[in-house]
């Protein structure tokens, strides 16, 4: 019976997936998608390897291998910008035996994405908090891929939404101070538009859709400023289990909503 169910799924899912894709109205496709890649550690514990490995590093490796798929699905559906939350600044305080492998996986993943030569990679986050070797790798990849014409990929590493807003305000104040403005004049110059110009994602559209995997229904500080008018989609699947059909369902749900832009 189990084999029969698996056989039916193997036949029906591709048909269902194709139908979802054909039903999408690309005029309603979100231009910018933010994705919280959540559930790697829980996936590893729930799906032990043959040798019994349930480590978080294993989960992160499997999760990292899904990113290329996500970017290809984005290309197919005419998404222009994808922001991936790979590591929060709070996660930088994890024990070194857990953090070091994760940072290595992130660095290797960024290099692999760059090697594809298909997408411009933009690191966003508190770069000064990262180890020098990772910071240098991220800067190198950003420089090497900046002229590529493809889906813009923001990789949020050492990222925190509150820190981003604080950094934007600091940058704004310093810029105005360098112009010789008085404290009063600087205060008068602070506005929503001016702060937006100093965000990590400055120059890019705000996310239309934010997807979080693993069943958690919260942002956790992801793109706090930019997501003020975003639509949210929460998926039960852990990130390593996230499929193209899940992605298409998220786009379908987005296209069916009547966006009120905060009203």
- Across the major sheet, the strand order is 3-4-2-1-5-6
Question: What is the CATH level 1 assignment?
Answer: Alpha Beta
The overall number of domains is 1
Shape: globular
N-to-C CA distance? 51 Å
pLDDT averaged residue by residue: 93
Low-confidence stretches: none
Rg value: 20 Å
DSSP helical segment count: 10
Structural class of the secondary elements?
Answer: alpha/beta
Strand content: 5-15%
General description of the model:
The chain has 263 residues and is of the alpha/beta class. The chain has a single domain (29-255), classed as Undecaprenyl pyrophosphate synthetase (3-Layer(aba) Sandwich). It has helices at residues 2-23, 40-46, 56-64, 67-76, 96-116, 132-145, 161-178, 183-189, 192-196, 244-255; strands spanning 32-36, 81-88, 121-124, 152-159, 209-212, 231-234. It has a 6-stranded parallel sheet, sandwiched between helices. Helix 5 (96-116) packs parallel to helix 6 (132-145). The relative contact order is 0.17.
Summarize the structure.
By secondary structure, the chain is α/β, with parallel strands linked by helices. Helix content is 48%, strand content 13%.
Secondary structure elements and their pairing?
Elements: H1 2-23, E1 32-36, H2 40-46, H3 56-64, H4 67-76, E2 81-88, H5 96-116, E3 121-124, H6 132-145, E4 152-159, H7 161-178, H8 183-189, H9 192-196, E5 209-212, E6 231-234, H10 244-255
């Amino acid at each position: 019976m189990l084999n029969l169910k698996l056989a039916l799924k193997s036949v029906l899912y591709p048909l269902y997936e194709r139908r979802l894709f054909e039903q999408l109205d690309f005029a309603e496709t979100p231009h910018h998608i933010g994705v919280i890649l959540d559930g790697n550690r829980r996936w590893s514990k729930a799906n032990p390897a043959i040798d019994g490995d349930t480590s978080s590093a294993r989960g992160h490796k499997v999760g990292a291998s899904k990113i290329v798929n996500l970017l290809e699905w984005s290309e197919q559906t005419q998404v222009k910008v994808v922001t991936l939350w790979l590591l929060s600044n709070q996660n930088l305080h994890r024990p070194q035996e857990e953090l070091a492998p994760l940072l290595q996986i992130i660095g290797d993943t960024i290099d692999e994405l760059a090697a594809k030569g298909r997408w411009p990679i933009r690191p966003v986050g508190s770069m000064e908090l990262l180890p020098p070797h990772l910071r240098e790798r991220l800067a190198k990849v950003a420089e090497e891929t900046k002229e590529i014409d493809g889906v813009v990929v923001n990789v949020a590493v050492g990222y925190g939404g509150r820190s981003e807003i604080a950094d934007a305000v600091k940058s704004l104040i310093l810029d105005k101070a360098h112009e010789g403005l008085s404290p009063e004049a600087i205060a008068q110059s602070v506005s929503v538009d001016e702060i937006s110009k100093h965000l990590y994602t400055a120059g890019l559209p705000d996310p239309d859709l934010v997807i979080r995997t693993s069943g958690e229904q919260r942002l956790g500080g992801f793109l706090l400023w930019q997501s003020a008018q975003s639509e949210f989609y929460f998926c039960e699947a852990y990130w390593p289990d996230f499929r193209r059909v899940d992605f298409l369902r998220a786009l379908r749900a987005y296209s069916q909503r009547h966006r009120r832009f905060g009203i």
